[in-house]
C-alpha cells in the first residue's frame, strides 16, 4: 500500500480553511487532522502552501476535429498541461458527426483518450443530429457510458447546429432518463447572416469575427434555451457565457424560481474585445465563439460569480497553432475558433481572482473545482479534500511569482493569449489519486495514468 503524508499545509475547500496534515493511502484521502503523527512512504512539507482540491475543467476540446483541422492538444499533451497548472480532471465533449450515432462519437473519444490521458477525464455527449435513432440511444449513453450531460450547439450552422425542435425534444427525453442539457448559446442564423454580409462587403479581417457575433446574439439564444428548458422541465447548463446581457437572462429566470447552471471561461473574465482590433492578423489568436467582450462584461461576470449566478469557470480549451489560424488569413470565418487555456486557468483565477480580492479563497475552490463536480456527478469523489475522496490535491504556493509564456508552457500550441502576464501564486506539486504527478514543477507520470470517470444520472447536488 502506498502512502503519502502532506504536512503543515492549509487545507482549503469550498467551505473551509484550516491548517491540517493530510494522509493519503493508495488513491484516497484517509485522514485529515491538525497534526498527524503517521509513518508514510513519502512526506511532503507544505509549509506556507495551500492544499486545494484538484482543479476540474468542465469544458475542453482535445483533438477536436473542427473547421477543417484538429485542435492541437492531444489527450496526453492537454491533460499533462492541465496537471502542470493544477487541473486534475477534465470533462471533454464527444461530438456526434451529423448522420452518425452517439455511440460512435463516444467510441471515437475513448480511442483518443484511453491509454493516453494523464489526467482523469469524463465526457459530455454533443448531440448534433437529434432523430429517432439518437433518441433511442439516450438511456444507454447515460446508464452504460456514464454520460449524463448532453450538449447542443445553437450556432455553427451547417456543421453542429440543431434547431429548437431538436433541442426541445432532446430536453424532454433527458427529463425521462436523468440528463442535463448543456448548450452553446448563440443565434446561428443571426451569426450566419452577419458573416455573409461582412464578407460580401469585402470585410475579411479578424475584427469582423466579434462584429458578426454581438452580445444580443448570445443573449437571445441564452433566453431561448432557458425558456425551452423551463417548458421541458429539464436542468440546463449554459456553457461559456460571456456577457452582461446573457447574465441578465439568467437572473430573470430566477424570478420564476428557475435554476440555470452557468459557466464562464477564464478568458472572458480577463481578456477583452480590443484584442480583435490589433494590427494585422494578431486578433486571430483570440478568435473563439462567443467572442471576447467589453470590460463592463468582465465586471458583470465577476459579480455574477459572487452572486452565485455563475457557477463554474472553465477554459473551453481548444488550441490551434498560428499556421492553423492562418487558414482564415483572407476570411475571418475560416479562422478555426478556439484558444488555449487549460494550463493557466487555475493560477490565473488565483492571481486575478483571490490575490486581486475579486473572489474569496473558498469561492476560488468552488468555481474551479467543487461546483463542477457537483453539477456533473463527480462529487464527492472529486471536487473536495475529504476523507474518502480521491486524493487529488494541489500544493499551491501563494507567494511564488511567475510569467506566462508560450516558451515555457506545456500546451501544444505556439502562442499564449496571456504572453508576458505576471502571475502571483503557483502550483508547486499536483497529486492525482495519491500519485505526485507534478513534483516541484517536474512531471512524473506515465502516459495513460488518467482514468475515465463514468457518472450516474443527473441529481441536484448543490
Ligand atoms: O471557439 C470555440 N469556442 N471553439 C470550440 C468549440 C465551441 O464552441 O465550444
Ligand atoms: Zn461552444
Ligand atoms: Zn467548447
Strand content: 15-25%
How helical, in percent, are the residues? 25-40%
Please describe the biggest sheet, giving its number of strands, its sense, and whether it closes into a barrel. Answer: 9 strands, mixed
| Structural class computed from helices and strand pairing | alpha/beta
Number of β-strand runs: 19
Contiguous low-pLDDT stretches (5 residues minimum) are none
Radius of gyration from CA coordinates: 21 Å
N/C terminus separation? 34 Å
The coarse overall form would be globular
Q: Treating each run of at least 4 consecutive H or I residues as one helix, how many helices? A: 13
What binds here, in terms of ligands, is:
N-(aminocarbonyl)-beta-alanine, zinc ion
Mean pLDDT: 98
Show the helix and strand layout.
Elements (H helix, E strand, L loop, with lengths): L2 E10 L4 E9 L2 E6 L8 E4 L4 E4 L1 E6 L4 E2 L2 E2 L4 H10 L2 E9 L6 H12 L6 E7 L5 H12 L5 E5 L10 H14 L2 E5 L3 H13 L6 H5 L3 H18 L3 E3 L5 H11 L5 E6 H5 L24 H12 L5 E3 L7 H4 L19 H11 L5 H15 L17 E11 L18 E11 L2 E5 L2 E2 L19
Parallel strand pairs: 1-4, 1-5, 6-9, 9-10, 10-11, 11-12, 12-13, 13-14, 14-15
Antiparallel strand pairs: 1-2, 2-3, 5-16, 7-8, 16-17, 17-18, 18-19
Helix pairs in contact: 3-4, 4-7, 7-8
The structure holds N-(aminocarbonyl)-beta-alanine and zinc ion (2 copies).
Amino acid at each position: 500500500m502506498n502512502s503519502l503524508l502532506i504536512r503543515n499545509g492549509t487545507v482549503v475547500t469550498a467551505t473551509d480553511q484550516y491548517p491540517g496534515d493530510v494522509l493519503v493511502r493508495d488513491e484516497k484521502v484517509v485522514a485529515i487532522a491538525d497534526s498527524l503523527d503517521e509513518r508514510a512512504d513519502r512526506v511532503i512539507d507544505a509549509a506556507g502552501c495551500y492544499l486545494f482540491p484538484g482543479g476540474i475543467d468542465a469544458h475542453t476540446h482535445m483533438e477536436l476535429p473542427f473547421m477543417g483541422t484538429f485542435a492541437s492538444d492531444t489527450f496526453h499533451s492537454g491533460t499533462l498541461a492541465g496537471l502542470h497548472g493544477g487541473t486534475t480532471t477534465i470533462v471533454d465533449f464527444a461530438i456526434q458527426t451529423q448522420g452518425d450515432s452517439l455511440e460512435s462519437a463516444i467510441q471515437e473519444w475513448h480511442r483518443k483518450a484511453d491509454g493516453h490521458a494523464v489526467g482523469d477525464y469524463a465526457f459530455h455527449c454533443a448531440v448534433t443530429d437529434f432523430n429517432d435513432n439518437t433518441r433511442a440511444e439516450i438511456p444507454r449513453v447515460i446508464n452504460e457510458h456514464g454520460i449524463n450531460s448532453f450538449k447542443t450547439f445553437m450556432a455553427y450552422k451547417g456543421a453542429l447546429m440543431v434547431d429548437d425542435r431538436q433541442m426541445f425534444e432532446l430536453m424532454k427525453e433527458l427529463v425521462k432518463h436523468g440528463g442535463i442539457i448543456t448548450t452553446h448559446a448563440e443565434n446561428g442564423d443571426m451569426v450566419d447572416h452577419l458573416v455573409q454580409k461582412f464578407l460580401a462587403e469585402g470585410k475579411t479581417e479578424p475584427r469582423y469575427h466579434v462584429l458578426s457575433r454581438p452580445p444580443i446574439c448570445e443573449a437571445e439564444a441564452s433566453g431561448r434555451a432557458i425558456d425551452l428548458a423551463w417548458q421541458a422541465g429539464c436542468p440546463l447548463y449554459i456553457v461559456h457565457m460571456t456577457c452582461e446581457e446573457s447574465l441578465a437572462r439568467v437572473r430573470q429566470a430566477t424570478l420564476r424560481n428557475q435554476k440555470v447552471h452557468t459557466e464562464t471561461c477564464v478568458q472572458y473574465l480577463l481578456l477583452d474585445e480590443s484584442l480583435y482590433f490589433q494590427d494585422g492578423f494578431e486578433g486571430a489568436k483570440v478568435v473563439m465563439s462567443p467572442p471576447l467582450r467589453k470590460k463592463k462584461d468582465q465586471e458583470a461576470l465577476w459579480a455574477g460569480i459572487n452572486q452565485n449566478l455563475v457557477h463554474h469557470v472553465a477554459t473551453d480549451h481548444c488550441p490551434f497553432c498560428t499556421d492553423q489560424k492562418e487558414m482564415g488569413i483572407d476570411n475571418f470565418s475560416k479562422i478555426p475558433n478556439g484558444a488555449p487555456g487549460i494550463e493557466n486557468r487555475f493560477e490565473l483565477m488565483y492571481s486575478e481572482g483571490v490575490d486581486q480580492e475579486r473572489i474569496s479563497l473558498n469561492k476560488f475552490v468552488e468555481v474551479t473545482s467543487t461546483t463542477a463536480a457537483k453539477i456533473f456527478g463527480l462529487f464527492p469523489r472529486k471536487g473536495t479534500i475529504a476523507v474518502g475522496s480521491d486524493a487529488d490535491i494541489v500544493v499551491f504556493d501563494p507567494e511564488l511569482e511567475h510569467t506566462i509564456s508560450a516558451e515555457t508552457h506545456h500546451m501544444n500550441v505556439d502562442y499564449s493569449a496571456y504572453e508576458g502576464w505576471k502571475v502571483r501564486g503557483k502550483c508547486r506539486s499536483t497529486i492525482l489519486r495519491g500519485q505526485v504527478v507534478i513534483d516541484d514543477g517536474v512531471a512524473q507520470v506515465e502516459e495513460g495514468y488518467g482514468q475515465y470517470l463514468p457518472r450516474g444520472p443527473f441529481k441536484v447536488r448543490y
